[in-house]
Amino acid sequence: MTARTVHLPVAAQDALDDVVGIGERAEALGYDRVWFPETWGRDAVTTLAALADRTDDIGVGTSIVNTYSRSAALLGQTAATLQEHSGGRFRLGLGPSGPAVVEGWHGESFGNPLKRTREYVDVVRKVLAGEQVDYDGDVVQTRGFRLRQDPPEPVPDIDVTGMGPKAVELAGRFADGWHALMFTRDGFADRYEDLRRGASLGDRDVGDVRTTFVLPCCALEDGERARDLARQHLAFYVGGMGTFYRDALARQGHEDAAETIHEAWQAGDRERAVGRVSDDLLDALAAAGTPETVRERVADFAAVDGVDAIAVSFPRAADREVIDRTLEAVAPE
Question: How far apart (Å, rounded) are the C-alpha atoms in residues 67 and 94?
């Protein structure tokens, strides 16, 4: 059975207590895990530590932390500490993010993202195993590092994100899981073949690589309002978050829409950008509308071959009422 998880929102929440409260609600409704993406706003480590304090059983994880603003050794320490603090409920999701975040916000050069991800996975695994880490990679160099406490038990799994063929192949070859974001069902199927190829190159079974499909969801009795919120959300990601969401959408056969949305958003014409998210494109990328409609669409995405977990995410403008109604509508049965 496909697991049901939650992507906690990074926007439109007044206080950390509100974010943690959404995680508590997800646990009460029977969700398997809550993920927190680290972009702007609250940092993932503090947020997940607070959430672990106020929950008992639900898994917690990062989806994602980037591989530029923290060293590989520090990410290993962080994963070990969160695993200890949560009582074994933590899962690490990492990835390179993109130039808009890495260069624009953190002032780091966005070079060798795939190699960096590969080397970070290597180093974090060594840290979590309690080994002395002497690592001389092309990107990462670490000498004499070792945890000063016992390594975590169990060792947390390491997932990576990826949108392009080579990035997904890397996930299949080296990671414990892959997080898929901004995919249609057909687009996911294409990239799943890359995941399968990567697993084969790593002498692994693709079934051992856990796939998490991040799905924007919005369920309201006013179905048109729900669809408008989701439409605005998709236009923001394709138009405003650098070029990698645009490029990923173009690879999936929606090149004209991707280019137009991006160009309009960059020109400041947000209304035109949102308007180019057609009903067909919205339904291909999200589950939005009335609760009954959204439940059906989430089930359709969950049934896609290779999907192990659906991560329910919310429109960036969603307030707590919208989030609560959506959580309730698509909660595990």
Answer: 7
40 burial class (0-12, 13-18, 19+ CB within 10 angstroms)? exposed
Task: Please give the helix or strand (H or E) that residue 29 lies within, else none.
Answer: none
Place of tokens 């695994």: 125
Cα distance from N-terminal residue to C-terminal residue, the chain: 11
Residue 51, helix vs strand vs coil? helix
Are residues 219 and 229 in contact, defined by beta-carbon separation less than 8 angstroms?
no
Block residue for tokens 């969160």 = 82
For the 3-216+290-321 domain, the top CATH level (class) is: alpha beta
Please state the φ and ψ torsions of residue 93, each to the nearest 5 degrees. Answer: -110, 125
d(CA 332, CA 329): 9
Tell me: the pLDDT tens digits for 173-191?
A: 999 999 999 999 999 999 9
Q: What is the pLDDT of residues 202-256, one digit of tens each?
A: 999 999 999 999 999 999 999 999 999 999 999 999 999 878 899 999 999 999 9
Q: Which sequence spans correspond to the domains of the chain?
A: 3-216+290-321
Q: How far is CA 135 from CA 131, 154, 205, in A?
A: 11, 23, 27
**pTM (2 decimals)?**
0.95
